[in-house]
Amino acid sequence: MDRPIKATLREARVHNERLVLATIYDGGRASRADVARLTGLTRTTVSDVVEGLLAAGLCREVGRGPSTGGKAPILLEVPDEARLLVGVDLGDRVFTAATVNLRGEILTRVDVPSEDSDGDVALGLALDLIAQVLDACDGPILGIGIGAPGLVDTGTGKVIQAVKRDWRQLPLGEIVAERFGLPVHVANDSQAAGLAEHVFGAVRGPNLITVKVGQGIGAGLVLSGELFEGDGFGAGEIGHTVVDPSGEMCRCGRRGCLETVASARAVVNQLAALSGRTVTMDQALADFRSGDPAARQVVLEAGRHLGAALGALVGALHVRRIVLAGTMTAFGDEWLNAVASAAAGHALAALSEDTTFEIGRMDDIVVLGASALLMTRELGMTLRPLHPERRPRWPDATNDKTPVQSSALSGRTPVGVVAEKGGVPG
């Protein structure tokens, strides 16, 4: 009976550590008493856990908060760089790796061209890139998060299929972990983009659809505060939904997929066919902005095709907030309006009127999403942290005696508390 009991105690310890850490992180600053009240843990348990977090450098004491009648409480916070996250985006044209802190700020980054790489060559390029970023890291590294193309089993880190890279059943997470000796988590790039908006974006909410529209098209779904991957990890693979059975051949082997009419690749290909010359994305953007009729027609029609497909998501899920990210968002509000109008025309009016479409303002969204995946899985952080500039700050007790409430004291319960419904008594 000893072994099961010990296992239970270890699990309880890990549970409590994650719950306490998430509560401090989400609140910006909190006292031990605040943490005990919000988590349901005893003060003794909280003090014990906090001592361990302090020793590990995962939290620190930052002075005293205002007194409510007794001794002013010592406040705790999670340092932004208590751990460094290595986020990787294995994009269609460029591989990017970056060092990211716990608040989603990119500290260093490296890009390498990847458009002509596939198979083992692409894998080797990714490994070399990660090694380069790790060599430049100056601080404790939590692990590596990767946003990869195609179908990805996030539980094992295996790329089930990525057509562009000619990867099938590639144990990417296992290969990277074995090479660098660090925890590794892998997700589909569009799903990673959804996590980035949800974790590091300026607006928090339980449900969110993030649609990444670049060389390909995919959606990241966050439902009830959790990344939704579907039964076979393919949730959000809308780019290969057939919209025109007699249309252009898609790289997946079928005709008329959404990617063939609504992606950045589709736009430049159509403009090239119309003009009889090679067209780059930069040229397409310049022509669109200058009012070129052909560019405007192609771009706005691409937006309408995308909107029609998203109308089905509006009807199926009724998620009120849809964020668009990726290369195509450079075409701005006119393209966005084309998407939103078409979506409204393909969904029940009562639902479409209750849905907002917006362009994401986040750079390196896949890098940040891969980092968010790593952070939440390794540290158990909340999926709704405060954005850095929105973190409540207690005043310096020596200079300002005015009480300023943290988010914890203003009634917003950290997600970890809701999900866990209290800690394990210790």
3D structure, described in words:
The protein has 426 residues and is an alpha/beta fold. The chain has 3 domains: 2-81 and 386-420, Winged helix-like DNA-binding domain superfamily/Winged helix DNA-binding domain (Arc Repressor Mutant, subunit A, Orthogonal Bundle), CATH 1.10.10; 84-196 and 365-379, 2-Layer Sandwich (Nucleotidyltransferase, domain 5), CATH 3.30.420; 203-359, Nucleotidyltransferase, domain 5 (2-Layer Sandwich). The protein is 41% helix and 19% strand. The chain has 14 helices and 16 strands. The chain has helices spanning 2-27, 32-39, 43-56, 119-136, 172-180, 189-200, 259-262, 264-275, 281-289, 293-317, 332-345, 349-352, 365-379, 415-420; strands at 30-31, 60-64, 74-77, 84-90, 94-100, 106-113, 141-148, 151-153, 158-162, 167-170, 184-188, 208-213, 217-223, 226-228, 321-325, 356-359. Strands 6-5-4-7-11 form a 5-stranded mixed β-sheet, sandwiched between helices. Strands 14-13-12-15-16 form a 5-stranded mixed β-sheet, sandwiched between helices. α9 (281-289) crosses α10 (293-317). The chain starts with a helix and ends in a 6-residue tail after the last helix. The model is unreliable at 384-426 (pLDDT under 50).
